[in-house]
Specification:
The structure is a single chain. The chain is an all-alpha fold. Helix content is 54%, strand content 3%. The protein has 10 helices and 2 strands. The chain has a two-stranded parallel ribbon with strand order 1-2. The longest helix is centred in the middle third of the chain and has 17 residues, at 127-143.
């Protein structure tokens, strides 16, 4: 891993400058709300048919946070953070999941949470869009330099460990005698060991 290239990932927005990040970002920005949706933006205008990059929408969780805030400065901060176009909110969500070390480690859970936010705003993915999103998200996740992995890309680590051979064992004299006198069934034992991902050197 090149040190200078790794340090670049500390810059804001770097996560989205990779080819995989740019592809996923473009896909999200061009998703549109279902034409039958009755949802409205923060100005009370219907967002049916609009692209996610063209309107600001407050989710129920955001409305709750704003109503719960008591101080004016808190409300102001929430307004500034939440008053961004919907595609930016989805991208923020994805970035949080990609770099979370604990809560959202399973990629299927990450995708499920993102889809729920899309559904709330009124986006109904077609089967083809869903397949495309899964592929783009997986590619993005596997090629991103993640905080929990100390800057490594999952694909890099996978390629590194492919070069390591699986652990292997061989049977000693006592085991060989047990096979010969019928105390142990050699074939059954070898099968169980290989289920554990361990090679058996037959001696």
């Amino acid at each position: 891993m090149d040190r200078d290239e790794l340090l670049l990932w500390d810059e804001p927005g770097m996560l989205w400058r990779s080819a995989e990040g740019a592809a996923l970002k473009l896909f999200v920005e061009n998703l549109s709300v279902d034409n039958k949706s009755v949802n409205q933006d923060i100005n009370g205008e219907k967002i049916a048919g609009k692209l996610l990059k063209d309107f600001i929408f407050w989710h129920d969780s955001e409305k709750f946070a704003y109503s719960y805030a008591k101080r004016e400065w808190e409300k102001k901060e929430l307004e500034e953070y939440q008053n961004v176009d919907e595609s930016e909110k989805i991208l923020r969500l994805i970035e949080k999941y990609i770099n979370s070390a604990v809560l959202y480690t399973k990629i299927n859970k990450q995708i499920d949470f993102v889809l729920k936010d899309l559904q709330e705003v009124g986006v109904c993915l077609t089967e083809q869009q869903f397949k495309t999103f899964l592929q783009l998200y997986s590619d993005f996740s596997n090629s991103s330099r993640k905080w929990p992995l100390c800057g490594w890309q999952p694909v890099e680590l996978s390629n590194m460990y492919k070069n390591f051979s699986k652990p292997a064992i061989s049977f000693g004299k006592n085991m060989q005698r047990a096979f010969e006198d019928g105390t142990l069934n050699k074939d059954e034992l070898i099968e169980e060991i290989r289920k554990l991902g361990i090679d058996v050197i037959d001696m």
